[in-house]
Amino acid sequence: MTDNEYRKMYDIDPYKAQTALFYEYFNYVYAIIYNKLRSCGNREDIEECVEDVFSSVFISYDRDRNFNGDMKGFIAVIANRTAIQMYRKLSRHKDTVYIENEAAEIADTDCIMEKTERNVLKNTLLKLIKSLGEPDSDIIIQKYYYNMNSSEIAKKHSMSPSSVRMRCSRALKKLKELLAAEGYGLKEGNI
């Protein structure tokens, strides 16, 4: 929609002109806002910003100025500026937790301890698997982390499937001993 088209439509029926402008540029404005706010805002924030853009367009549009070009640039400038303002506002308050917010819950200390222990175990396990050396560490990771079978692993390492199974069995025994030395017990299927 050009400026002249909008101006003529506005002179006849302002509401109809604003509605037409909204429907023509809604997707364009939404894309601009979404790209700026997707990392810090939710859907409601994005929709609110889109509404702010169109209200700013309608308020700041200068009907006395003669411009015969496309309104896309004018709308894009307002959309970018409004999105940047909203981004700054949301980023400033991103880490703030409000007590009155019913959705915010205080974390359970038992859950935190359990997650921490699990992460320590995972890091220890990966460190010990890497200490097994090549190709044993690769075989263990491919078998238990990537769920590859012996034939697939054998092709990658130019070995026979039976050799892969034998190396895997020996590496697991060695890994159990290393974990026991660290104070952990390894159960089958818990890698």
Automatic annotation (TrEMBL):
Domain RNA polymerase sigma factor 70 region 4 type: 124-175
Domain of life: Bacteria
Pfam families tied to this protein: Sigma70_r4_2
Residues of the signal peptide: none
Entry protein name: RNA polymerase sigma factor 70 region 4 type 2 domain-containing protein
Record key words, sorted: DNA-binding, Sigma factor, Transcription, Transcription regulation
Record InterPro entries: RNA_pol_sigma-70-like (IPR039425), RNA_pol_sigma-70_dom (IPR014284), RNA_pol_sigma70_r4_t2 (IPR013249), RNA_pol_sigma_r2 (IPR013325), RNA_pol_sigma_r3/r4-like (IPR013324), WH-like_DNA-bd_sf (IPR036388)
Organism of provenance: Ruminococcus flavefaciens 007c
Gene Ontology BP annotations: DNA-templated transcription initiation
GO terms, molecular function: DNA binding; sigma factor activity
Family to which this protein belongs: Belongs to the sigma-70 factor family. ECF subfamily.
